[in-house]
Design brief:
The complex is a heterodimer of chains A (290) and B (140). Chain A has 290 residues and is α/β, with parallel strands linked by helices. Chain A has 10 helices and 8 strands. Chain A has an 8-stranded mixed sheet with strand order 1-2-4-3-5-6-7-8, sandwiched between helices. In chain A, strand 1 and strand 2 form a beta hairpin. The longest helix of chain A is centred in the last third of the chain and has 26 residues. By secondary structure, chain B is an alpha+beta fold. Chain B has one domain: SCP2 sterol-binding domain (Nonspecific Lipid-transfer Protein, Chain A, 2-Layer Sandwich), CATH 3.30.1050.10. In chain B, a hairpin with a 2-residue loop joins strand 2 and strand 3. The radius of gyration of chain B is 14 Å and the shape is globular. The chains are: A alpha/beta (290), B alpha+beta (140).
Chain lengths: 290, 140
Amino acid sequence: MTKMEPIVGRYTTIRIMNDDCRVYFEEAGQGIPLVCCHTAGADGRQFRHLLNDEEITKHFRVLAFDYPWHGKSTPPVGFQNYEYKLTTELYVAMIRSFCAALELDHPVVMGCSIGGRIVLQLAHAYGKEFRALIGLEGADHQQPWYDTSWLHRPDVHGGEVCAALCSGLVGATSPDEYRHETLWMYMQGGPGVFKGDLYFYRVDSDLRGKLGGIDTATTPLYLLTGEYDLSCTPEDTIRTASTIPGAKVTTMKDMGHFPMSENPKRFKEYILPVLHEIKQRSVAAKSQKA
Amino acid sequence: MAAVIEDPSVALEQALCERFERCLPGGVNSDEHLVWRGRYLTADIIVQIGSVPFLVRIENGRIRECRKGLPLLCSTVFSVKGTTEAWAAFWENPPLPKWHDIFALTKFGHMTIEGNVQPFMANLQYVKDILAMPRRGFAK
């Protein structure tokens, strides 16, 4: 029989604000729950290399869920009657609802891009609920670099333009195989979904000056950004971290905006030490309690 | 006998123009898959390298003409104009961060994209690929 990957995919219906949402997620491993939040306009497949990595899954229960409207999660009932727009409130509710529905005990949340931005809000408003927070390609704000109205209009193919825009966010030396797999996911998003996610990014989540009170002693915050990320530059992340005492920043060499999917081997070099630190901290906390 | 160019910036601009001319039309037209990907694009566009404009005439993804300088009163659909520094860095292999993509160059002020942008966006990866072709070192 052919060799199976250890990833298991399941569906569940969870209440997110006013909607019951049928959500698809994949998981592998055991131990500390590590919830992975994908980028705008993509889905949980971006994290397949982490889910397949025994060095990670022997200590972490890695979970990657597709946000409603994305991947194999369906939009809420009645979606055909309104324009999708992700807000900060909805995004926070989505992640907290998923963690609560699965009864995860103080999970680690790791998000990329919009996911990197939302972990800042989680750290600010709900830090104590989480064991640690990891923002990949995250900042409190960044300068826009194109007009998002191009993402959803009848005279431009949505999937093709989303991928073509994102092609410039991938590191120049990332392996071709993974570059194109990353872009393929962008070609598969529903109409207007990437644009709707970017409502959160561009309009509803300017967090500059709003991140006071983050307690990194209770909930460590790690921010890692690729040097080739032209959207969220390393300077954006460093500037953000400078306003959060105790936040740990890493600039990832050779990496672009999608570290976990565009260059998984290189990303592992950066994320393993972070996960190791989180695990050590958990072990220490456990032994203190005992 | 070739003219001696002493100003290094002029020499760089000329070298970049020559690199571009080595790729267009030959490099594009010999790449059948690239031509196929651009099959819905027919447009005359301007690509400007430093102070030198090129008129690039695209017909169904094939480069019909790439000529240095613009004819009088020629009408074009869109233009992509970058500094010599921008094109030189963009065509490095591999390019450095912040110089590796045309949107990095526009975001950080080294390039402009103007005109009717709809055909540009509708054929974005194709246009990006022809503009990046000198990085691949097509030599014919």
